[in-house]
């Protein structure tokens, strides 16, 4: 089973960016954690991070058209709250997407309560730190396993 771990803007700056909100762990540490969990659970993972909305749309389309990905763990970051294009991309591909947020978006500013991606995600995991990505992988493993 192949999962795409897709991250949006500023996630590459984890560890530096607002550590009181997102923690001190870096993006590289997050990738290592996910790789280890993938090995332990028998999942195949590929990674992509971009600060650009269109590049994220391309990544979602390519996950279906080229890479034949089974599921996507997606932290759309700030685009969560603004992007109809990313909502439409998630709706356009027949791939289950779990939305992940490191922080608890619903407990923050009002503008973060607007959420486009949630409308198309099979699940949303928010406020569990890096563990949320691992939980999303486990969720997709069960979800896709149940579909087959
Ligand atoms: C985030 C929450 C978003 O509101 C924010 O814009 C981010 C990160 C999170 O992981 O908690 O960039 O998606």
Main beta-sheet annotation:
5 strands, parallel
Which bin fits the share of residues in helices? Answer: 25-40%
| Shape, per Cα inertia axes | globular
Oligomer category = single chain
Structural class based on helices, strands and sheet pairing: alpha/beta
End-to-end C-alpha gap: 11 Å
- Count of individual beta strands: 5
N-to-C order of helices and strands: EHHEHEHEEH
Could you say which small molecules are bound to this protein?
Answer: 1,3,4-trihydroxy-5-OXO-cyclohexanecarboxylic acid
Tell me, rounded to a whole number, the average pLDDT. Answer: 97
Quick structural overview:
With 148 residues, the protein is α/β, with parallel strands linked by helices. It has helices at residues 19-22, 27-41, 53-65, 84-92, 131-147; strands spanning 2-7, 44-49, 71-75, 97-101, 123-126. Helix 2 (27-41) packs parallel to helix 5 (131-147) and helix 3 packs parallel to helix 4.
Describe the structure.
The protein has five helices and five strands. β3, α4 and β4 form a beta-alpha-beta unit. α2 packs parallel to α5 and α3 runs parallel beside α4. Strands 2-1-3-4-5 form a five-stranded parallel β-sheet, sandwiched between helices. The protein is an alpha/beta fold and 148 residues long. The mean pLDDT is 97. The chain is globular and about 35 Å long. The longest helix has 17 residues. The site of 1,3,4-trihydroxy-5-OXO-cyclohexanecarboxylic acid has 10 residues, from loops.
